[in-house]
Amino acid sequence: MIFFGEFFYNTEWFPNITAMVDSGAVYSTFGPETAKHIGLNYKSGKEMKFKFGDGTERNGYFNELLVQIGKYSITTSVVFSDELGLSYNLLGRESVFKHFKVCFDEKNDIITFEPFSNLNGRTLP
Questions:
Q1: 49, 58 in Cβ contact below 8 A?
Q2: What phi-psi label fits residue 3: left (phi over 0), alpha (psi between -120 and 50 degrees) or beta?
Q3: Higher confidence at residue 4 or residue 38?
Q4: What is the CATH number of domain 2-123?
């Protein structure tokens, strides 16, 4: 299911960045096009190798972004990589699912994010 959200980088909010909410993905992964759109030199982030189930390895770079979900904003790690061949962005468990109870209503094509009481993000007005 698709998430339309706002991401904050370098003193600026970027609205309507889309990402698929993926309960099977550990990390949030974005393509280089999104990094370019927000003016991020993603290769300045922490480099890491990722190993997939088939044994292949790919490089990615962790960067911190602020993401707004409803009236909450949280700082989250996003992996940017040009080696994954993604044509879309993914929001994974480490980024979102530890802060929110996420419910997929496929019949009505709705995703709900209910914050846990210990949410470390800030509430927006």
A1: yes
A2: beta
A3: 38
A4: 2.40.70.10
Which of 107, 52, 43 lies closest to 79, judged by CA? 43
Tokens of 25: 């993905």
Strands (DSSP E) found in the chain: 2-9, 12-21, 28-30, 46-51, 57-69, 72-80, 90-91, 100-105, 110-115, 122-123
The pLDDT confidence band at residue 60, using thresholds 50, 70 and 90, is: very high
What pLDDT does residue 121 have?
53
What is the distance, to the nearest Å, from the Cα of residue 60 to the centroid of all Cα atoms in its chain?
A: 14
Residue type, 115: P
With contact defined as beta carbons under 8 Å apart, do 115 and 72 qualify?
A: yes
pTM of this structure? 0.79
Which two three-digit tokens encode residue 31? Answer: 């393509």
Q: Give the per-residue pLDDT at 124.
A: 46
Residue 38: its H or E element: helix 32-38
Do the Cβ atoms of 122 and 69 come closer than 8 Å? no
